[in-house]
Design the sequence.
């Protein structure tokens, strides 16, 4: 059994979100691997667009504390216009090195069409700027309308791939982080 705590963040505000269903599947995989889990649904947090001139905004402190409780994190995003969702990017903008540096992160992207590879690439770059340890294994759910029906995976192979993401997040959740990345050293803000 693992004593890791895995936090999942769904980067979708849609009420019938397939991204949320996929994150829950990844967290179920993490639980089967022995971790405790917590699903952070961005619909329940008031996270206005980040204004660095303000000390605190909305529920930013609560969100940061929730992310910091995770020994590892699964980030799930729908693919919007070839990238990750703006709400997920904004939520991550409210975080910093205190919450994510050295943290193992698993990436998951969901698309209505073909493979959401660019969304995964963009998330990987964002996470490396935090000097997080991003799993090489990632999960993509293409054609999600037929892959996830009524909140459940209709495609068993995809369900297994997403569940494996949760398992791998636990397996590598306590890995020693690498030296700081070039991206993290350039992460000074605007």
Sequence:
């Amino acid at each position: 059994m693992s004593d890791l705590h895995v936090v999942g963040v769904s980067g979708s505000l849609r009420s019938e979100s397939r991204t949320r269903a996929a994150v829950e599947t990844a967290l179920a995989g993490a639980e089967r691997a022995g971790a405790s889990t917590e699903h952070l649904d961005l619909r329940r947090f008031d996270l206005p667009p980040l204004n660095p001139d303000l000390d605190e905004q909305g529920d930013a402190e609560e969100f940061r504390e929730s992310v910091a409780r995770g020994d590892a994190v699964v980030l799930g995003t729908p693919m919007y216009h070839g990238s990750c969702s703006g709400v997920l990017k904004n939520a991550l903008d409210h975080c910093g090195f205190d919450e994510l540096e050295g943290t193992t992160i698993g990436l998951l992207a969901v698309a209505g069409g073909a493979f959401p590879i660019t969304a995964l690439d963009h998330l990987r770059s964002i996470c490396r700027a935090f000097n997080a340890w991003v799993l090489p294994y990632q999960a993509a759910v293409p054609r999600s309308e037929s892959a996830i029906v009524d909140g459940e995976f209709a495609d068993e192979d995809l369900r297994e791939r997403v569940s494996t993401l949760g398992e791998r997040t636990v397996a590598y959740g306590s890995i020693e982080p690498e030296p700081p990345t070039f991206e993290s050293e350039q992460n000074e803000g605007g």
Notes: The mean pLDDT is 92. The beta strands are 5-10, 36-41, 72-78, 104-110, 133-141, 148-149, 152-153. The helical segments are 18-32, 60-68, 86-93, 97-100, 117-129, 144-147, 156-171, 182-185.
